[in-house]
Structures are given as C-alpha cells and as structure tokens.
Write a structure and sequence with these properties.
Blueprint (H helix, E strand, L loop, with lengths): L5 H17 L12 E9 L2 E9 H5 L8 H14 L6 E3 L5 E10 L6 E5 L13 H29 L4 E10 L7 E4 L1 H4 L5 E7 L4 E6 L5 E3 L1
Parallel strand pairs: 1-8
Antiparallel strand pairs: 1-2, 2-6, 3-7, 4-5, 4-6, 7-10, 8-9
Length: 219
Amino acid sequence: MNKFSPIALALGLLFTHTAMAEEGFRQHDAHVHGEVEFNIAQDGDELLFEITSPGADVVGFEHAPENEAQKQALAKAIAQLEKPIEVLALSSSAQCEIEHVSVRHTLGEDEHHDHDHDHDHDHDHDQHDEKAHHQDQEKHHDHDEHNDHADHADHEEHAGHGEFTVEYHYLCGDISQLKQIDTLWFSLFPSTEKVRANVLTDTEQKAVDLNAKNSTIKL
C-alpha cells in the first residue's frame, strides 16, 4: 500500500481548487454563518475532502475558548471531526479506507490536529541534529518582536471569524462503486443551514447545495 503524506494531500487539494476555479465553480468569497463548504475531488482510487466551516457552526463561537465549557465544546468538536465515519457515509461497496485526517481551526488553543492511518511512520526526523536546533535558537530571539506584532495583527484580523478546515484522504478499493456520499454534518452541527458541495471526479464536475432534508451527494 502506498503511503500518502500530508504534502501529497496538500497538492491534491491545490489541484482541486485550481480545477474548480478553471471550471467556474463558485467558491465562498466570505465567511458566512450557517454555510459550510465541501470540496470533493476524486482522482483514480483516491478521494479527497476539504471541509471549511465557520467556528460558530461547529462550536457556537469564533474566538479562543474563554471558559471551561467552551474548551470542552472545542475538544468535543475536534474529536468528532477526527472521525470521518461520524461526518460522512460513503457507498460501502466502494471499499474506501481513510488514509489521512487533518483538523485545523483558528480559535486558538492547539490549532492543528494531523495524523495518518496507515501505521507506517517515517523516522527521518530523528536525524535532525543539535546544529539545526542551535540555529533555531539563534533565530528565535531575532524574530520574537516581529512575531509578537504579527500575532497581534493576526488576532485582530481573525477576531470573530474563527473557522475550521478539515481534510480527509481516502483510498478506495473499487471507486467505480462510489455512487453517493451522505453527510451527517447537519446532525452533528445543526447550526449549519446549508452545505455547498463542489465535486470534481474523473467523469463529472458539479456544485450541489445540501441541507438537513437533502444531505446526499449523488455521483
């Protein structure tokens, strides 16, 4: 089995955005509460999902957690999003297995959760020596002041506009049997009123609007 790295996933998602732009797919130009975007790309036996959602739709707020209840809500949402089976239901006959999951958000705390599911870990990082560490320390002091200003500016820019970005990467045994995708998003996060699903496969490209009463993408 091939190993799929986060870099490969990122390139795949870049391909998705590029292709969708060329085909005239409508992307959200603004952060809109109640509206979530699914970008779905199929290439051969690989299936890529990118989900972008306002923080308010997922946890009810769009800033860093301010109390224990909000911290727990954020932790619960991340745990749910890290389990694709709780978010999506694919045609079982397509034999799609999850290879990589990434959950990111801009609500402070630990903002990036990223892991593979193929249990084949690369240990090349063990070869980073003390020289690299020393260089990092030398650079750290020089950038402290700059980073403080950058962080402050970033906080100002994103205040009240925190969002989640979720990536799922599947490898399918028989992609030709993938006839539909059901989303469980509306059950998990009922604040969402609409999902815009942009779909790009080997045979078609389309955009579909989903809601709580119509949550199936036909392929």
